[in-house]
Amino acid sequence: AIKALTKLGEDSDIAISGMARGLEDGNASVRKLVVVSFPKIVRNSTELAVRRVSERLDHPMAEVREAATRALLQFADGDVLVRVVSARLEHQSADVRWSAVDALARVAVKGDLVAVLAVRGRLGHRLVDVRRVAILAMSRIASTGDPRAMSDVSACLEDMHADVRWAAVGSLALLANRGDEHALAAVMSRLKNWRAEVREVALEALVHLARHGSSDAVAAALRCVTDENAMVRRAAVCAVVRLAEPGDRRSRAALFACMQDSDVDVRRAAASALARASECGKTCYDAAI
């Protein structure tokens, strides 16, 4: 049937529609044949072919969405590809949204401005899940070290939803080279945010971005061990442990001070760090709890 459709000639509506339906076939070999056959029937009616094939990007089966992406890559223009794929970042189905992230990374080259702008426009979407996949997509398509992309994702550290904030942490780690000044400045500015949950996630981002032993990063984390919020203090203790050089006196003094913290989790975090340093061992941990 697929071979018969190719004989109908280029730009035939019947051939294009029939071939697009073939992408939904349950046999992988048939879907593969459809993908490689599209260039034989599409010449001037690219818009029609894009419309018919892109409908399959919404299909509930991952195999069909994958075949549709591969088919589009055979004949569609790059900007058109970005437009139809990025639109699926807003799809009601989580599976379709995540497939769109993978597809976008395939159809757009790193740093593609059209793709970056398409994703940027969804970072402020009203739906949490759309914002989250947009953040991930940005880390896949923006160039490493792109200051605008890092600034956009850093702003998501202030999102009201925890899933979005933590997605921003992961994406920043992928977008920025360790020690990147732009990314660090954006993260450190959030350590003073009025919301405790933002300060907490900024500390985690700091750990991912700063170079080990960075005096500025360690100093920033040390300032947070006296934060008014216990959740932030605990995150600060963990950040100090992961950033400071072994034997750093200021860090050790701060950890010992945290042994007297009013919050048991902060005390445990400090005691655990000191116990790993082995100087006070189990005695520190027992004293903290």
Automatic annotation (TrEMBL):
GO terms for molecular function: oxidoreductase activity. It holds the Pfam family HEAT_2. SUPFAM superfamilies: ARM repeat. It comes from the Eukaryota. This is HEAT repeat domain-containing protein. It comes from Noctiluca scintillans (Sea sparkle). The lineage of its organism: Eukaryota, Sar, Alveolata, Dinophyceae, Noctilucales.
